[in-house]
Design goal:
The protein has 119 residues and is of the alpha+beta class. The protein has two domains: 41 residues, no CATH class; 62 residues, CPE0013-like fold (Roll), CATH 3.10.530.10. It contains two helices and ten strands; from the N terminus they run βββαββββαβββ. The chain is elongated. Bound molecules: iron/sulfur cluster. Iron/sulfur cluster (SF4) binds next to helix 1.
Length: 119
């Protein structure tokens, strides 16, 4: 099978074969490509970026992201969870919105600096 490594912008095209000796990867320019390919076959993970609603003036939504990777199979469940999140006060960038996702230790954090307005 072929896949593109997404760990860095080089985007190496990887050839991945399952052999009796295990998974054999070629085409990578560095060791991270082999780890990526093996991870994709055995336990694919992704970072996620999205947004959540707020009731704070001037911020109908704020952007959020995971501060690490979660199992790819949990992404839709996370997106459903985020639909039910509404922030009610201005938060500094990097605030935890949902902690310890699925027991992974990964958090969803804000990526917007929300400023209080006097109005
Ligand atoms: S194999 Fe290494 S150099 Fe190539 S895309 Fe992956 S991380 Fe980048």
């Amino acid at each position: 099978m072929q896949m593109v490594c997404i760990v860095c912008p080089n985007g190496c095209r990887l050839n991945v074969e399952q052999t009796e000796e295990g998974i054999v990867v070629s085409g990578q320019r560095c060791k991270r490509g082999e780890a990526f390919a093996i991870g994709e076959l055995t336990d694919p993970k992704r970072s996620v970026t999205s947004s959540v609603r707020t009731t704070v003036k001037g911020y109908p939504v704020v952007s959020v992201k995971t501060d690490g990777e979660i199992p790819k199979s949990k992404i839709f469940e996370l997106m459903d969870m985020l639909k039910n999140v509404t922030l009610h006060e201005p938060l500094p960038i990097g605030s935890v919105v949902i902690g310890n996702l699925f027991g992974t230790g990964v958090n969803v954090i804000t990526t917007t600096q929300m400023e209080e307005t006097d109005e």
